[in-house]
Design brief:
The protein is mainly alpha-helical and 241 residues long. It has one domain. Helix content is 63%, strand content 2%. The chain has ten helices and two strands; from the N terminus they run H-H-E-H-H-H-H-E-H-H-H-H. It has a two-stranded parallel sheet. The radius of gyration is 19 Å and the shape is globular.
Length: 241
């Protein structure tokens, strides 16, 4: 048996009854398993992703398509206070890989992240999109203006911000179920994800169609990944709902 691994895969192990007060201990045991590999892999992956993201953003192959607004976009008003919730994605997406303790799952998780990013960037490369210009005085909202100056309004559909949030919500939900978390904690996971999706529209970084496409992409990759993991086991790996 290798250090930090059990002889039984996490998908097959049945956790003993627990309470939410016992979660931090189990959580940290997962985080500390293979932590140098997780930390290095996440850091390198993010650097490569952002390099590719901005290359595609500034060098599209085709003319940029402006995404149309829907009634939902008009209904959700501009809310600059939603910016911290939008930015919280960068903490949120770190939780799921941090809790992986099985080596096969960890490697495949990284591969799924690459597949998700490559799918979105491939769409941006051959079908570049942008959100329509908003009639907002950005000088009154410097924090949001800084984000838009850095990220512009391109690489809009599908929203990779949303895709990674949905992918992470599914995997974090799976971890929480395995750890025996209560419905309240598992529900908080989905509320956080929903808040991130809402914030992408509320700060005018994406429109509803971007969010819809991004959610579909994240869901498709997560379910394909779980199906692949279950293919080599006698007990299939099920979605966390």
């Amino acid at each position: 048996m290798k250090a930090g691994f059990s002889s039984e895969s996490p998908a097959q192990a049945v956790p003993p009854p627990t309470t939410d007060s016992a979660l931090p201990g189990r959580w940290w045991r997962g985080v500390l398993t293979w932590w140098p590999v997780k930390m290095a892999g996440t850091a390198i992956g993010m650097m490569v992703f952002f390099f590719a993201y901005f290359q595609v953003l500034h060098h599209p192959f085709r003319p940029v398509t402006i995404m149309p607004l829907t009634a939902i976009d008009r209904w959700i008003g501009f809310q600059p206070e939603a910016l911290p919730l939008y930015l919280s994605l960068w903490c949120y997406i770190l939780l799921a890989p941090a809790l992986v303790v099985d080596r096969r799952e960890l490697v495949s998780f990284g591969a799924a992240w690459v597949a998700l990013a490559a799918s979105g960037l491939g769409v941006f490369l051959f079908w570049p999109t942008a959100v329509p210009a908003a009639t907002i005085d950005w000088s009154r909202h410097p924090a949001v203006a800084f984000l838009k100056a850095a990220d512009a309004t391109g690489n809009a559909c599908p929203s990779l911000h949303v895709a990674f949030a949905v992918f992470s919500a599914i995997w974090l939900g799976r971890h929480l179920g395995r750890l025996g978390a209560s419905r309240v904690v598992r529900g908080a996971n989905w509320l956080w994800c929903a808040g991130i999706l809402y914030a992408t529209i509320a700060i005018r970084q994406h429109v509803f169609l971007d969010v819809l496409a991004g959610a579909g992409l994240g869901l498709a990759v997560a379910l394909a990944h779980l199906r692949w993991l279950g293919a080599g086991r006698s007990s299939p790996v099920r979605p966390p709902w």
